[in-house]
Amino acid sequence: MPQSSERRRSVAFLDREGEEWTAYLVTYPDADGLWHGYFAFRPGHGDLDDDDVRTADIFLEASEGEILAKARSLGRPLLRGLLESAHHMSARANGSGPKLRGAFRTLLRENAHDIAGDWATEGDAPSREADGLDVERLRSLYASYRLDQVSHFICLVDPDAFEDAVDRILDGERIDFRANDRIQFAMMVVDFIERHLPLPDFETWARDFLAHPEAYRLYTHTLHREGRLP
User: Fold this and answer.
1) pLDDT digits (tens, 9 = 90+) for 54-85
2) Is the separation of the CB atoms in 22 and 13 below 8 Å?
3) What is the pTM of this model?
4) How far apart are CA 20 and CA 39, in angstroms?
5) How far is CA 29 from CA 20, 49, 69, 93, 152, in A?
């Protein structure tokens, strides 16, 4: 559990197997006044502390400034090595590789981008000229919106509870995201969740979208680009 007095600073962005991770330096004082420090790494799909992998406390100094100075002297190769080590230890502790919840969110983000493009960050027509959009473009954005709602819901579910739910939905079949059948099984789960969410129909959504395009742009940008929930 995070210490109430922890201070977290973003120090680098690292690539691991095609996914971007954010490296944080985390510091906190103990009861004796000494400062501890460790690195936490959060994947691009992560929004919560549960998504992090972390090192052990690797710094112990009389002041926080001494830890900051030592951390600044570390290069990217060493940070990448620490990420690999932290990821390996987390996988061993959890008995698996990347958490299932995060793998689903990555898949949904990529599919939503493939359907509607990166309109939330590019600032294209949906945010500037919503009234000029044709029906086909609106339907693409609507399909992307529905996937975003599933992604948001998954992030709100406890990781262990989500894995149990996936197991029940698939009636005991397990998803291996390295296997060729991962898309088939994953979309079975996504379809099940989507059917049980209270989502608006296309006409209702389109009216609201055309009236508030900037709110939708901000929502999508926050969900996929800022590493936090809207």
Assistant:
1) 888 889 889 999 899 888 877 788 888 888 88
2) yes
3) 0.54
4) 16
5) 30, 20, 16, 26, 34
Contact present, 3 and 35 (Cβ < 8 Å):
no
pLDDT tens for 116-148 read: 666 666 544 444 445 557 788 888 888 888 888
Answer for the pair 21, 41: CB distance below 8 angstroms, yes or no.
Answer: yes
Task: Say if residues 14 and 23 touch (Cβ distance below 8 Å).
Answer: yes
**How many angstroms separate the Cα of 116 from the Cα of each of 43, 138, 140, 147, 209?**
23, 9, 5, 11, 14
53 within 8 A of 39, measured Cβ to Cβ: no
Cα–Cα dist 4/54, whole Å: 17
Distance CA 169, CA 46 (A): 23
For 122-134, the DSSP string reads HT-HHHH-GGG--
For residues 67, 29, 40 and 4, what is the CA-based torsion angle, rounded to 10 degrees?
A: -150
Give the span between the Cα atoms of 60 and 42, in whole angstroms: 23
